[in-house]
Automatic annotation (TrEMBL):
Domain Disease resistance N-terminal: 15-96
One GO term of the biological process aspect: response to other organism
UniProt-recorded name of the protein: Disease resistance protein RGA3
Biased composition (Polar residues): 738-747
Region (Disordered): 726-747
Residues in NB-ARC domain copies: 176-266
UniProt GO molecular function: ADP binding; ATP binding
Residue ranges of every copy of the Disease resistance R13L4/SHOC-2-like LRR domain listed in the record: 366-601
Cited SUPFAM superfamilies: L domain-like (SSF52058), P-loop containing nucleoside triphosphate hydrolases (SSF52540)
Key word Cell membrane present: no
Record domain Disease resistance protein winged helix: where: 267-321
Amino acid sequence: MAALDLWNVAHSISAQIRSLFSQEIRLVLGVKAELQKLRTAVSAIITSGLLREFEDRRFEAESVKDWFVKLGDALHDADRLLDDIRTEVFRRRVMGGDKRILNEVRIFFSSSNQLLYAIKMAHRVKEVRERIDATWHDRFLFQLEGNSNLIGSLVENRVMRETYPYDPQPYVIGRDKDKNEVIEFLLTDFDENVTVLPIVGIGGLGKTTLARLVFNDMCVKQHFELKLWVCISANFDVQNILRKILRECIASEELNANLDMHELQKKGFIKHRGSSMNTIEEVGYNYFTELLSRSFFQDIEEDLYGNIVRCKMHVLMHELAQFVAGNVCITIDSSNAIKFQGGVRHVSIIATEDYEWNGFERDRTVRSLFLIAGKRISIGHLDFSYFRNLRALRLQDVVWDVTSQSIGELKHLRSLDLSKNDKLSYLPNSVSNLCNLERLNLRECHRLQELPRGITRLVNLRHLEVSGCSRLMHLPSGIEKLTSLQTLDMFVVGEKQNSHAARFNEMSRLTRLRKQLTIQHLERLESISGEVDAFFSMEKFVLQCLELHWDTNVVMANAGEVLERLRPRRNLEGLKIAVGDAKHLPVELFQSLPSLECLAIKRCPCLKDPSVRTILRCLTALKMLEISDCRALDLSTENGDHSDDDDDENLHARRLNGHSKLQHIHIRGIHKMESLAGWFQYLSNLQGLRISLCLWLKSLPSRVILRLLKTVRSLELRSCPEFDLTGQEQEDQEDMPNWQSYGPTEL
């Protein structure tokens, strides 16, 4: 793993020098000459192929290991130094904010007030280049090139076990169903000339055993005149392939967290072609799904929209990952003494509440640090000057007071996660100095009231996560400058008289927003037409879910106008609305969303006639429906529910027949509802029904209606004090064999 890491660092050095030369920055002669020498030295390392040879062999000589560590330290120092220079160039260009400063940047290192800095950088570049040259030259002392005795044995020399098609029938139990399914597939005639049936799974599941069962089955022998068992284990070293996958994908930060994709691209773990239309996040996700399809990960969890939010790694894979990572990535249990070798780049700490920092953080080589807490813990003051070389810092579920301005010294930082910090009420202004920052996670910092005004200068920021920050008053004015933003999960509309609050129209400049967006305090928009220009459109955002919230305590007359103006693109999958004092919802809004799968109507205390059935007829793709905290709403009946006309009943059935996809309904806090509306009987694919806090609910629909709901697997009733279960439960359960009911004490 270390060899691949150094190979990627070497490429990073070369790319950074090339970038400095291409930015039309006139470097003083000494700096340019030293950078060119450094580029030549690193290019020699890349083209030699020795690092690739190291990657395929094990180290066996201690002297070679020591030499390799020294080379790695020198290359990492060079990479860090170039990042310093690039950051300074970028900071002076972006932070200056006027043409005068921009002109000074274009003569960087040559203007009089930059001469001392230029001389200092020239000496540092020369020093690190001489270290690299000297260390690289030492390879001749060991006669490394072509000397396999010193470098080590080839990993490819391992021979994996062979597999044979002998009949394992006496020893196999419980595979009859799987065997029959495979045989049925093989005996089916296909138009294609070649048919392939892959059997995928982790080691030890019995894939080869199942193949043997099918291979030796009598039906297969009679059907196929010729059979051939091919074993490629001799030239197909599975462990080596897995090692290479690990090296490419999780050999550094990825062992510990989902880090910034551009940082992984810089290290060479993700290959993103410049001509590709996909973002680096999309490329990384494709890598992940490919590994998932090969059972590298398992037990995935998805959100409502099919996004994978959590998964597990098999213990065998984890052990292999630890072996491949070696001493570059380590995990520390804080209950034990913190002792580890130098050269560690990525550290994870499993921390307990009594954890104390012991000073190892001063190690200049550490590039990512993650504090993993099983539960929310509190720690003392942190001096960020310890972490100056960090690229990623994660302190999730850690409660501490972020007041130190030293956080602004982490100029290499790309990813900062301070989520779930209950003490965090504000961020120091020095955060605005983190010009390389690409991801800032502040989710569920419930006391956070505002963001630093200077955060709008972080033009590299692509992910700003503030959902769950319930006290956040507004976003800072100038948020429109962050045009690289792909994630802004919550936009808080500020008070009109607050000059420091972002105007609503600024959101229209953030054209790359995707996934989920929540807009809070829409009641502060006195006139939507006065807040946005003619070019404003929500359809430019590639959103899966949109949430629109009004304050329930504010009287407003423009909710319908705002809803119409904020109409998203037609392929929206989720919509959640909390419309305050609105009495009606525009049906036209739902008619424009044919792909909607999840709909939630919440906190609409004045809503009286939502025309739920009319809305449902528009949403033929709907799978989940939630209606909650609408006190004035009565879902007991709607027009036509009690009609005795068979034709009318058939008409209702045909109108709602397209809603076979609706699977889950949650009704909460609908106090006027005494029963369910009759149209529930036409929801033929309903699987789950939750009813809670409906104070006047007395009964479920009649037995005839329940009989039509045979697909219901879960019926949950909670906190409905007027509901009478007597005499109904046993009779209805006979018609609903999949019904999971709760005892009377839980209702």
